[in-house]
Amino acid sequence: MNSGTEPTRAEIDALQQPAVIEFGASWCGHCAAAQPLIVAALAKHPQVRHIKVEDGPGRSLGRSFRVKLWPTLIFLSHGQEVERLVRPADSSAVERALALIDIAP
Questions:
Q1: Closest CA to 65 of 83, 45, 47, 91
Q2: Which CATH number fits domain 9-101: 3.40.30.10, 3.10.20.310, 3.40.50.720, 3.40.1190.20?
């Protein structure tokens, strides 16, 4: 993928490994509050790729996924959306979604 830039939708769609795209903004209070639970859940799934995307006006990747609120987590398997969490409030919801895409090591 592009280094230092937002991945394209085509690059996301071509992913073969399980992945989570996290859409948010550095100044977003909801995003900051969700970080500990997102990080904790992802730590248990090291084979799942985590892609953080700074979202906002004019950002086409977020629009292509119809992201409206932050943080929005998109859980992908083979480039296809399997689950979506908007403003997750606990790590168990993130864990359940990760279980849908994670493959045994």
A1: 83
A2: 3.40.30.10
- Nearest of 19, 24, 37, 4 to residue 82 by alpha carbon: 19
- In one-letter notation, the amino acid at residue 71 is P
Give the tens place of pLDDT for each residue, 17-62. 999 999 999 999 999 999 999 999 999 999 999 999 999 988 999 9
The token duo for 26 is: 């550095």
